[in-house]
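B., you asked whether I could sanity-check this one before it goes into the benchmark set. Here's the sequence:
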Amino acid sequence: MRPRPPRPRPPGWSVTADVVVVGSGVAGLTAALRCAAAGAKVTVVTKARLDDGSTRWAQGGIAAALGDGDTPAQHLADTLVAGAGVCDEAAVRALVTEGPDAVRRLIATGARFDTDDDSGEILLTREGGHHRRRIAHAGGDATGAEISRALVEAVRRAGIETVENALVLDLLKDARGHAAGVTLHVMGEGQHDGVGAVRASAVVLATGGMGQVFSATTNPPVSTGDGVALALRAGAEVSDLEFVQFHPTVLWLGPEAEGQQPLVSEAVRGEGAYLVDADGVRFMLGQHELAELAPRDIVAKAITRRMLEQGAEHMYLDARHFGAEMWEHRFPTILAACRAHGIDPVTEPVPVAPAAHYASGGVRTDLHGRTTVPGLYACGEVACTGVHGANRLASNSLLEGLVFAERIADDITARRPWDTPAPAAAVPGSPAPAAAVPGSPAPAAGEPLLASETRCTIQRIMTAGAGVIRSARSLDEAAARLEAVHRDAVEELHRDGKTAEPGVETWEATNLLLVARVLVAAARRREETRGCHWREDRPERDDATWARHLLVTLRQDGTLDVGTTGTAAFPGTTA
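And here's what the prediction gave me:
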């Protein structure tokens, strides 16, 4: 009999709620507030502080058809074009039709957007892929920070229970295989510490992205794919993980720069900045009808192509014509970040290069945020609703978090699963009935926790083999190297019974390896170029074969099952 990874002690504490929300960005806090307003007892758990997620880093704004002459139909059309043929149109229609009122409710919650001094109307700007000004912003380029502030204050006013500095580990299931809560590893001092559990009959994953799977990213350090990894271990389907968006204009800090990099918002181009090479040539002219405001995948590819042609490490974003006053009032955050790194965009072009930014794929859901595991919901960047397709339209992410969080809350409160007594809890992530009190388990049967230093190894493998430009050769090499990391750890476990000591860093490394393996498996399977998935060996889009979604599940032995849907639409999605 093969040795199993050691289980840490049982949870030192346990709390009970009707709904547990994992994550504290726009999606998680919106879901929590709406569930609580409907009378549900809600607990929010978050990996760092309540305001430390990806939402606060969003610079550009939130897209919605709020302006004169704009319509949801026009917003839908722009979203479908950016998504390159694999958006779920029903999901996009829900987003754009419900979006304007969702933004108004956000304002009613306390979010303050920039307005015209005379009319008081919300100021709107443009970003890549949008044919109209429909991006509402706050604090010039601090939209996410303002939304986060408003929602955190609303959660505190509502008295919703929160557990901060809590890394989610695994899903608890009852004897039917339904979600029954989550296990957590809580760091630091406070009411709760160590391994614990929140038991609830509805679990909402809003854990954000997985940008830290690459060496350079705009994502904060907490974005390690924890929600996707948890869902995979629980038996849920994930979809479209190959579609990782690389933001075209990230401040270039040198060839050795790793970790979170400063973003230069697309709104800078929306206000008229130019992309140029070292000779000052605007290379986006003629590439697309919208030039610098083409969808992000097109701009990122054009920048990368120009860098390869010229042997350059970066291109430039030129907005000197804005003048000091516009920079200081419209983009104060970006101006400060540039100047902190010795660059003054008022007087010189800003060096930029693409970096990992947003996961268009994630845990597969229907139009109500339901995953393939009963009682488990997902929204925000961790989810794949079908809205983004192969490439997210700029500033649709905050809107998706709002709209689908509200849909999830409405579904949960209509069902009221806490009114029906559930069978005894099962072992975390296990589809088989059990009655044991959960501990903090190893990631999957026979799968060990990885040493924390493995994180850098994974990031470098992914950057080299699955970055902006991919090929069969680069992906095969990445897959082989990732499998070697996985195999070596498994063999050590089976041979010596050894695995890394459970802790935040080892769980993060283990989660990153799992999502990296899934991403590469999907990218190898999709033998075409579509949206932000760029295969240099398969440069054409192939609608006859690949106008569909890839679905990945994790088998009990730790291997991956990669399948496809029959069409671009998710089967079974209903409005």
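One thing to flag: Residues 1-9, 430-442 have pLDDT under 50 and may be disordered. Otherwise nothing jumped out at me.
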